[in-house]
Amino acid sequence: MRNRSLLVLSIALTGALTVTACGSRGTSKSGGDAAGGTTVTIAVDAPLSGQNSATGLGIQYGVQIAVDDANKNHTVPGVTFKVKALDDQAQPATGQQNATALVADSSVLGVVGPLNSGVAGSMQQVFATANLVEISPSNTNPALTQGPNWASGTKTRGFKTYFRTATTDALQGAFAAQYAATAGKKSAFIVDDKQTYGAGLAGIFKDSFTKGGGAVVGTDHVNTGDKDFSTLVTKIKSSGADLLYYGGQYDEASLLSKQLKAAGDNIALFGGDGIFSASYISTGGTGTEGDLATSVGVPVDTLDSAKDFIAKYKAAGYPGDYGTYGGYSYDAATAIIKSIGNVVSANGGKVPSDARAKVVEGVQKADFDGIAGHVSFDDFGDTTNKQLTVYQVKDGKWASVKTGTIG
């Protein structure tokens, strides 16, 4: 993680605001009177183009619906919310640049994102220096909240401004290993994409699988952007593994599964929430049938609390995949909006000059039922919602096969 000094703008938000429209890639300026009230920006950082964009767009529009609901319901009297979405292209350096730009925009009082754990690592210090709250609906690497020595039991929170509504890989990897064992899988070949999320998740699965009596018969790595996996497919077939575990995103995983099946090896590919996307199936085709994925929370399509959200998403024709993190994005934005409401109410209906710091304090105290589950955070900024689900591709669609908790 790189640290850099920032000049944090401390400008009261009760002046005139000029705010960008939803989805703009530009920056907005400070200021604030809109229809007799103040305009506040909820920012989004995610991959909105290229790799992982289907999932990133689901995050963006999950936030958009939360903002639209807050404005329609006048959740914070006198405040109108806007969304400002920046594309990090799943690149840490771009994420850090985006974080710096958002800090410089004094209308931004909260950020939802990023999607990727590696990108988050480049942004945390920037937001912490500016006391700007950041809630990721999808980061799962334990070190982001619990420090680099979390696995040894030494947990330290590095950034009080960072929170997440998704549970961590420490639970997700173990949940996958436990499911594999109950499904009778005795040997696994493990592959990762060498990224923070993928390598971390694969390592946790490996440890949990072997502790449960399973055998790891081979390991290997791929690069993001790879498309030809013929050499790797030969290794996997020769290993005799009855399961392929993949740590990474759907872009490479779908092609690997497709090529593996085409070569005559019909073992299931099992991955984390990085592959849990409709794009995985559409790209991998029939070769993905029977493949498995874990994802955070309860299937959003089964929740009565999310029905209105899903209906609005579909009616608006928004692009992207709402099913993976859309509900968690809505809840993350709602946590920020509720905190802003409390801050404004305590300051006589106006946004105070130290609003950012106060919003961070308010998010830490969040305690409400969201559309994807209960929203509250522990002392590390991690969600208290530990539910996970295993999905399997059945008849060309992801179907939930087990929901529960572990540890």
UniProtKB/TrEMBL annotation:
Which superkingdom does the taxonomy of this entry point to?
Answer: Bacteria
Query: Where does the signal peptide begin and end?
Result: 1-21
Family per similarity comment:
Belongs to the leucine-binding protein family.
Cite the SUPFAM superfamilies for this sequence.
Periplasmic binding protein-like I (SSF53822)
Domain Leucine-binding protein per the UniProt entry, residue ranges? 39-396
Name of the protein in question:
Branched-chain amino acid ABC transporter substrate-binding protein
Record keywords, A-Z: Signal
Q: Which Gene3D superfamilies match?
A: 3.40.50.2300
